[in-house]
Design a protein that fits this description.
Blueprint: E1 5-10, E2 14-19, E3 24-29, E4 32-36, H1 38-50, H2 53-59, E5 69-72, E6 79-82, H3 84-94, H4 105-108
Antiparallel strand pairs: 1-2, 2-3, 3-4, 5-6
Helix pairs in contact: 1-3
Amino acid sequence: MCCNYSILKQTQNGMLIFLKGCGNYQLTFNNLNFSLTEDELIAFANYLKRIDIDYWEKEYEHSIYKKKIPIPTLQSNFIILINRLELYELLVLINFENTNEMLSYNDLKNGIFWN
């Protein structure tokens, strides 16, 4: 990683960093780290925006895994699984249109346990 960088966005589970020396991006989310060019970051953002959450949750409703939304990779034996809230958080990290975007109550209502 370049030593000259700026943090563009940060959430509880991730961070988007711009590497000034090479012009690339580092997207860190949970235990994943993506090194992306600007075009790759835009393509990844567009892919995430097109995911049909309801479809995947219905498709895998009887799965043994809690996370139901797949993100395929070029490696045929590796698929990233995320849940609805993680997808929303990833979208917040890579959304350049609104830098002050916040999750709404409707985004979080299924993930908050009111005690």
